[in-house]
Structure formats: structure tokens, C-alpha cells
Predict the 3D structure of the following.
Amino acid sequence: MKSCLIVDDSKVIRMVAKKILEDLEFQTVEAADGQQALDACKEVMPDAVLLDWNMPVMSGIEYLRALRVLPGGDAPIVVFCTTENDIEHIQEAIEAGANEYIMKPFDSEIIQAKFTQVGLL
Amino acid sequence: MPSGYFDFIRDFLKEHSGLVVTPDKMYLLETRLNPLARKLGYSSIDEMIGVLQNNPNDPIGIDVSEAMNTHESLFFRDNAPFELFKTTLLPELLKRRADKRKFRVWCAACSSGQEPYSLAMVLDELSGKLGGWRPEIVATDISKSVLQRAANGLYSQFEVQRGLPVQLLVKYFTQKDENWRLNDNIRNMITFREFNLLDDPKVLGTFDIIMCRNVLIYFDIATKSRVLGSISRVLADDGVLFLGSAESTMGLTEEFWPVKAGRGVYKHTNGPASIAEP
Ligand SMILES: C[S@@+](CC[C@H](N)C(=O)[O-])C[C@H]1O[C@@H](n2cnc3c(N)ncnc32)[C@H](O)[C@@H]1O
């Protein structure tokens, strides 16, 4: 079973994502901000990360940059999932090492399509 | 719902586009034609169909056919055909067509354009290998309105997230408010044209690759056979045909033979080794 870390400061979004990912047979872990996510990754690297952008304490992009320099931090496949839907943000995310990018609102079809594209499914 | 016009509509659609509507799909008539009738200012489907019954050539027929057909499509649908194109078909074409430095692809039911544009992006990604070559992509559909959308190359946020890798979104699209528009260099690679698959495709010339995906499923057996027959006559001797992932030629024609390279990939039964068989 593959693991996916869900990083979003909204509990509701985490719940929706968790349901979708469990249906896709992922084992899920949750984090409410970038710092929590980073701490989780230092303990166990997940196979995938579903990542919000705007969060208190540490943003998604800051987390991603920090993740990519951790030992083994280049392994997780990181999929942004955010309301930031302009090309500048997308470009910045790709440069920071994101593998895919979902513009909210999302549904299970989009998550499934994107996860398939990056080889997680 | 009165079934009075069911027979008429069924015959009309079959003749016009090949679309088969079985009695169990009758509910579709209502859900799709009611909004159309309202939009065109008729008080009921009956009234709208009455106009068509009096004059089968009334432009309403086009709207009716459009409303009843399924236009769903996505970028890089099923992915495998595009991978095969990249890894095998293109390298083979570059070898086998080296004298003419040209090859032609036909997307035979292109809907809103995601299929031909996916190919165009693949070609552009590989343009380094294509110096001086003139690949031609002809994309056709029976529906004027989807062709119009396709030529515009404007897609919603939802559409660009189905099948399209984000790296290609950033590289080949420009954001227009809530939507995304394909850049001119990609749009200019495609020739869009109205064409009914029930007609003879000889007018389009011959092709090295034909994609006829997810359209035959809507036809009856006789129509499928006929269309496959016509398609085989415009496919190069060593060309390949792609059908949708749930479609096959089994029991429909002897003209095509599946190739091992992938599901839904066919060659001429009596032809030489196809470009999918290096
Ligand atoms: C479901 S879409 C398939 C789009 C694309 N090939 C794909 O696989 O994603 C089917 C398309 O076939 C078109 N179509 C239906 N009957 C046709 C006919 N007789 N000739 C040409 N196109 C037809 C419809 O207008 C529609 O756009």
C-alpha cells in the first residue's frame, strides 16, 4: 500500500482528500501546515504528498523547498492542490520540484487522473 | 413522453450521423432535447420535432444531432496511443518516409480538439528530430460547434486538468481569466475540417496514422463495418489505425488486424509490417 501525506490547513479539505485517497487505496497521514508536514517527513518519507499552498506557520512552497533538500527528500511525488491557479504560481511550484499541480476545486476524477499521470496509480 | 416522434428521431439520427438510439436510451432524448427546445423557443420537443418532420433539412436537425451526440474528450486519453506514437510510430515514420519528409495523421472524430492537440504537443516536444519535416494533422468531426471550440483552443480549468501534464500546460497554454488557450504554434499545426464519417474519406487524401476513437461505439454493426471499410481505403499500406480502448474490429471487418504493440491498434490484414512493427 502506498502512503500519501495530506497537507492542508482546512480540516474539511483533508477529510475530503482522505476519503478520495483511501478509495484509491492509499494509506494517509495528515498535516495542518508545512512545518507539521516536514516533521512527519523527517520521521517517515511518504510515497506521495498532496500539498496546499497557503497555510499558517509554513507555506506549501516553503515546505517543498525544505523537503527536497532533506536526505531522501527527492523521493516523494509532490502534487500541489491549491486555489492558487495562475501560471506564475504553477511555474514556481514546478521549479521548486513539484511533480503535478491541481487547481482547486478538485474532485476524485482529477486526483485520480493526476496521480495516474505521475505513476502513483 | 409520447413515443410518436421516437421513431422519427431514431431514423433521423441514424441517417444523419449514424447514431443509434435504442428504446432504453429514450430518457436521453428527453433530457437532451428538452433544453434545446426551450433554447430555440419551442414549447415542447414535439413542436420542435414537428418542424424537422416537415422539413428534414431544417437547420434544427444539426442542433438535434449535436445535442444527442456525446462529445466528451480529454487530453492524452488512454495515454498508450501517444506513448506508442512517441516511441515507435514516429521513429519508424522518420525512417520509412525519409524520401518525402512528410507524413499525415487523421483524427476522425476529434470533438473539441484534445486528441489532435495532444499529438501536436508530442510532435513539438520532439521537434528537434523533425527538422525540415512537414507532419500534417487533419482533425475532423461532424459537429460544427465542437470544431469551432477545437479551433479556438480555449479550455476550462477542469478540462486542462484531465490528462494534461502540468509541464505541458505551462509550456503550451496561456491563461485567459478562468480559461486556458493553446498557443498559436500548436493550434497552427492542425487543420480542422467538417467531415461526416458516413461519407467517403477519399476527399481527405491518405494517411499514415488514423485515430478513430470512441465514435464507432455509437453506431450499429452495419455502419461500423462500412466506416471501417472506408477508413481502410485511405490508410497507407503500412499505416496504423487506433480505435478507442473499449472498441475492436472483431466481427466487423476483415480489413484490419490487431498489432501486438497495444490494445486498439490495427494494421491492414494483408499489408506489410506496419509502422507499429519496426
Ligand atoms: C466521444 S467523442 C470522441 C472524441 C475523441 N476521439 C476521443 O476519443 O476523446 C465522439 C465525437 O464523434 C463525433 N461524431 C459522431 N458521429 C459522427 C459522424 N458520423 N462523423 C463524424 N464525427 C461524428 C461527435 O460529434 C463527437 O464529437
Remarks:
- Chain A touches chain B at residues 85-87, 90-91, 94, 98, 100-103, 106, 109-110, 113-114, 117 (CB under 8 Å).
- Chain A has five helices and five strands.
- The mean pLDDT of chain A is 97.
